[in-house]
Amino acid sequence: MASSSQPDLTDGIDYWSSQPASLDGVLGGFGTGSLPRVDALGSRLFLLHLFPELSTVDSALKPIGKPHLSHRIRALDVGAGIGRVTADVLLFLVSDVLLLEPVTPFVQEALARARHAAATPQRNWLRASRSTYECYRVGYSPEKPLEDVDSGFDVIWCQWCLGHLNDAQLVEFFRRSHAALRKKDKGKSLIVVKENVCSDAADGGPKSSFDDQDSSLTRSDSAWKAVFTQAGLRLVREQVQEGLPEGLYTVKMYALR
Length: 257
Hints:
By secondary structure, the chain is an alpha/beta fold. The chain has seven helices and ten strands. Strand 7 (208-211) and strand 8 form a beta hairpin. The model is unreliable at 124-133 and 135-142 (pLDDT under 50).
């Protein structure tokens, strides 16, 4: 790899703990422009192409008469921050979301946003702890034990957070994530990675760029694919996120099984 420096997860958490727990804070100053909406719409369409059953209306992605899913769809939002992806992407498409976030101020802000969202008719976020909380749509009061709680996830969504892991940690993370997918439907369940990518090396090989400010790596497309291969994952779809402001890294979405 081109970078001689490696990310340190503790340093990364310390950096993000010093940033504002706001849309602008988690998006590097781009929270008030077009980026949040463009990003969310791109993510929803990407997921719908892979999982057309999630569409709530008949469309080109979900033909008329296609049967409804027989179980509730569970998603894991990795590096969830203040709950932006859960609120703007996942809860429009799936039944239940579990958020994973290690930065305490972000968790507190996400919980505050969740309580505010509870007053809306679309969704309700019910349970919280320091680093995770579970979200359910309004009108669903799960019995305990939850019927699907041990059945795995249908979608594991990872966005703008995996650069804080080195390659060995990332391979282990992907292997554990694959094991956490819904076991009775491994052919449909998937992992989505949405991350910045830098250019490949001159020979087309993998390359990375280290940011010592937040202790993270930006990997090239080849570098991401090399890690996917090491983890034993199969790439089923990839797409560049269009419409983002100029001057930013290219952002790519990868769907993996």
